[in-house]
């Protein structure tokens, strides 16, 4: 092994070690995000008990999943785990299929539970801390493969190893952090496949994106954007089209079991999860609108029950909300264009969570002032600048970094125009992510896939600046 390779291995090892330490510290000090976490722990415990990927009726589900967790903790004191023989009893005839959450993350939680037992949430955070610490190496490989710039690749990897929003996503008991790493691995395989005569890499890319979709279904439709990047990167049009087809076929073949299960149990080919309808409906409520819609989970649930549905997340309610959104879009298409444009600034400069608990924060910046006073984030800042700065200073700092990352993406297009084939591959996922959530709903957790590419762009701009300084110094 030559000195260059030895140095690279030592450098990458240091990145992983620092990443593990940073994530363990975040896991130790950050609170568990218990609200959404229960949506995944519940199905995991149901699987552990042998109840299948099912749930009781909604009015019993929230209490029963708490009962499942409590029962598991009780039997763990006897050195046992919940299973077919040790489980709280429920009326099996009332169980119905779970459609809200794709099964990838609950299955992961189940695996952690079987290996480590209780306390499950804490063990999941530790396991994810170790797994996600290797994800910066994927970013390193992507930048090196596309641009052959070691300095930029190392810088991007270091940023991914220690950037607080990444650390937070990595150790929350939610699928975003894990799904991001699998998606990045799928992109790396796609890049390899673009430069190789074999289509095996494309099939692997589709399989990995499918796994990411099982964790978070938002990545399922990224393949056309990767296909467009392949058209730019590869010669001709036959090979990139075939490559895209192989990727898409592998993706849908891997997700077919889930879609077929949903078809058998409901008569509907559901490739992702329920909730698309109410998500679009709540997206309307993120801005003042002529229909009086408010972006609030409780309001969505209340509206669904008024229509006679069990909740806003059933298949029937999903179809109703989609119908409502289509009717509103047909009635006032201009509103949807303005709403999309209003979301764009927060998507390009996202105030991600850093895991920091700010004692000055008493109200949510967006939800409270929008729902209670009808103010946009900008209007909130103009009316309550002191409160916003004191309560959200860490979010504002992250917004600035995120905004710089988005600006860096534009600079990368200019500075690396001679490598535009590589730039197209780098920006495929972020372009897809921005378009998807600009047109639907702004939630900062959904925008986690932007971060590694923003970090890569910042590193590439820094690398280009250093190179120019060196050239000037050499003259």
Features:
475 residues; mainly alpha; two-stranded antiparallel ribbon; 21 helices
Annotate the secondary structure layout.
Blueprint: H1 3-29, H2 34-49, E1 54-55, H3 58-76, E2 96-97, H4 104-116, H5 120-132, H6 135-147, H7 150-162, H8 164-171, H9 176-195, H10 200-215, H11 223-233, H12 238-266, H13 276-284, H14 297-306, H15 315-331, H16 333-348, H17 367-373, H18 377-383, H19 385-415, H20 420-438, H21 451-474
Structural class: mainly alpha
Strand content: under 5%
**Overall geometric form:** globular
Q: Helix coverage percent of residues?
A: over 70%
The pLDDT mean sits at: 91
Order of helices and strands: HHEHEHHHHHHHHHHHHHHHHHH
The count of DSSP E runs of length 2 or more, i.e. the number of strands, is 2
What is the gyration radius calculated from CA atoms? 23 Å
State the end-to-end distance.
Answer: 36 Å
